[in-house]
Specification:
2 strands; MetI-like fold; mainly alpha
């Protein structure tokens, strides 16, 4: 199993390594302006400068230390907004999705409004978010919650409505009450759909947080990328982008492991 995982990781690293080597070669040959496309080494150097809490710099004959560590603070600020917004959005979407999936009457009440609002991207709410909540964390959290709400809602509805009728008839024939059927049959059968919605929702939340930080707050990875653009620091822009990718990958891997753990009873995941 370990050898298979290592082989899979090694195979997945081939294309990125080739791209990085070609990128470095193009930069070393001077085919592109380094301000437009800095070399990978320059980006990595800037990433460490952006990351480390203490940075050395020379002043006369003495080695001084400057406090930095922006990357840790910005990453923490972005993750805080993502988690808070996602918890709010998913916390509202999950019970509504379960109710809409289980009850035709509730579905008829809410579905027209859901289908009206669902196609509107969270970015379109930015002016209203700033008008309603001002600047700072509240509008960013609102936008993130909105981005996470609909993926969780729609997948939860689909999961409940697509429970195999055989399970429902069997539970009904065994005398299961409505609450027992919901808790012991419908909810467990819809968990794979719900977890898929959670995975999509938290990915959407991470996208929205970057956009919201470019508009409404004065810290975070999105804000720092926008700030670097103002000063033409392309290496810092790419360092921030790499950080976003690493955090997004970590979140996706964690969600995948959580799904595999919770669905270990599911076919194909027993071993």
């Amino acid at each position: 199993m370990a050898k298979s995982n290592l082989r899979e990781i090694g195979t997945g690293m081939v294309v990125p390594v080739v791209i990085i080597v070609a990128w470095q070669a193009v930069a070393m040959l001077g085919w592109v302006n380094p301000q437009v496309l800095p070399s990978p080494l320059a980006v990595v150097r800037k990433w460490f400068v952006y990351l480390l809490p203490l940075q050395p710099y020379a002043e006369g004959s003495w080695l001084k230390w400057a406090v930095s560590g922006e990357l840790l603070l910005d990453s923490f600020a972005s993750m805080y907004r993502v988690l808070l917004g996602f918890v709010i959005g998913a916390g509202l979407a999950l019970p509504l999705g379960l109710a809409m999936g289980a009850s035709a009457r509730v579905y008829a009440w809410f579905n027209p409004l859901v289908q009206l609002l669902r196609p509107i991207p969270p970015i379109a709410y930015i002016p209203l978010a700033i008008l309603w909540f001002g600047l700072g964390n509240p509008p960013a959290v609102f936008l993130i919650a909105l981005g996470a709400f609909f993926p969780v809602l729609m997948n939860t509805i689909a999961g409940v409505r697509q429970v195999d009728g055989i399970y429902l008839r069997a539970a009904r024939n065994l005398g299961a009450s409505g609450s027992t059927m919901f808790l012991r049959v419908i909810l467990p059968a819809s968990v794979p759909y719900i977890l898929a919605g959670v995975r999509i929702g938290i990915g959407t939340a991470f996208i929205v947080v970057i956009v919201s930080e470019m508009i409404a707050v004065n810290n975070g990875l999105g804000f720092r990328i926008l700030e670097a653009r103002e000063y033409f620091w392309s290496d810092k822009i790419m360092a921030g982008m790499i950080t976003i990718g690493m955090l997004g990958l970590a979140i996706d891997v964690a969600m995948n492991r959580l799904s595999n753990y919770l669905l270990r009873w599911h076919r194909g995941l027993e071993h």
